[in-house]
Amino acid sequence: MHEPGDASVIAPDLMRDERTSALADAWRSLLRNKLALFGAVILAAVVAMAVFSPWIAPYDPSLQIPWEGRRQPLTLFDSGRFVLLGTDQLGRDLLSRIVYASRVTLVVSFTAVAVSGLIGLIIGVIAGYLGSWVDAVCMRLVDIFLAFPFELLALSIVAVTGPSLSVVVVVIALRVWVVYARVVRGATLAAKEKDFVQAAVALGASELRVVLVHVLPNVVTPAIVIATLYVGRVILIESALSFLGVGVPGSTPTWGGILGDGRAYIDTAWWIAFFPGLAIMITVLGVNLVGDWVRDYLDPRIQA
Amino acid sequence: MNDILLRADNLTKYFAVRRGFPARRLRQVHAVDGVSFGLRRQEVLGVVGESGCGKSTIGRMVVRLIEPTSGKVVFDGVDITALAKRDLRNWRRRLQIIFQDPYSSLNPRLTIGSIVAEPLVIHKLCTKTEIRNRVADLLKKVGMSPDHMRRYPHELSGGQRQRIGIARALIVNPELIVADEPVSALDVSVQAQVLNLLGDLKEEFRLSLIMISHNMSVIQHASDRVAVMYLGQIVELAAADEVVMAPCHPYTVALVSAVPVPDPRAKKERILLKGDVPSPIDPPAGCRFHTRCPHAKPRCATEQPELREVRSAHFAACHFSEELYA
Fold this sequence. Notes:
The complex is a heterodimer of chains A (304) and B (326). By secondary structure, chain A is mainly α. Chain A has helices at residues 7-10, 19-32, 34-51, 53-56, 94-130, 132-147, 150-161, 165-192, 195-202, 207-215, 220-243, 255-263, 270-298; strands at residues 75-76, 82-83.
């Protein structure tokens, strides 16, 4: 609500996209929403952990001390080494590994979700808006990707290119974009039948304008929901790739990778699988809280 | 100077329907079939008929939101159905449309100011500071306050939204507005306000209007001339009072007899038509109304009646108008 005498009411903003005020507006809205703020704090902490890993991790994450393997959390060794979250099967400090693993994990999951989201959004909107044969071609392509065994696709691509970080991102994006494309196409089909789209056409708006101003903003909501859901999924998909030996190469740890390693020791050393799982869970929680807020923030009908 | 602003010539729209799998038989809905009419400058032409008779399709063909299957729309001497898409975009600002559902016709993500200003932005009609003034000006003219510019559509009532739709259509100074059921989604008390607003703005902006409605009272109140439609064709076309007081087509007679009269003692002969409207996929041969017409004769089933002048400036498509309604 506007206070009486609020200057903004007397001199109203016509366009919403006045960038500077929009950013400040978003910030104020975030501060008002306690849950979203909590999520943002989580995300900021996780990102800080990734950026400042060398300063946060107490030990070298790849230092193996085989005779100190699979020790439970809060163990103090005679050497003076204190492992807060225990050690893994090779005696490496679990906390340091999880801290370092956040780097690759975050890069892979966020870029994969963003890249696939971008591809899916573009193809979904094009298919839904243009319809006819374009729609048919795009959707059959989606069917092909959905029908194709993902592991086989991943194995064959990596067999050709060799494993690397970017290949992992591409492989995951190939798997995930179809989800966006399907849902966004449906939302586009619904949006383009709305009278305000017809009105824009009748006013002489170019097709590009119709799509960007009237269709796109009304289909981003499902895309954001998928994105928040898939950040967690992608972390697990990455671990599946690592398990197959086509994940991120070398000694670079990832949360999914540590989780996968710990699975074998779940009955004797639960912490190896538990703590990376916890890290994934907390991150996904943060993403979901922030994602919910973004969705609501973009929808003027829900704004408090 | 030519008095006719818009002429529809044999307008026809068939929609393809696909049925059956895998052998698809192509069938066609005859939504509008050979409709011709003229619209004079600053005239209000009402188009009335029950749902599915093709009146909205006509409205959308006139502003070329739907491409006609055949026939043409001549606007100010130019055949706009033949215009290339690029040329068409410049023409669009001269003919505008107001939609039925005020909840679907405004983009929920844009502010009222952005919605009303959009036509100016699209056609680059004025500078940024002028835009604000013109939007404020027009909001006042449709009975809203400039304060509403910052609001979003969901914060407004149905009647207010419809006013915004009208403002958006008016801001480019069009010559013709197609009002597609502009009040049927509104409360009755608000209907009159919006209709009167349209009437006032018509005078002020020297507009011509095509008013589409299923409500005979609305049409009679708002229009100069009325076209009555049945199953994709015009069955009667005459001055509004003529159509209501002295209809010359059996369908119009039945339609008029269904209009409620605000007098409980008024004795009225209510004509109830039997059966349903035939499917527009397979319209009846001959006169399309013959399957339900109380006066149908053998000739009606075979020979399609032309829309002809049965009285001066009063057109009807019935073989027996003169005999029935002399």
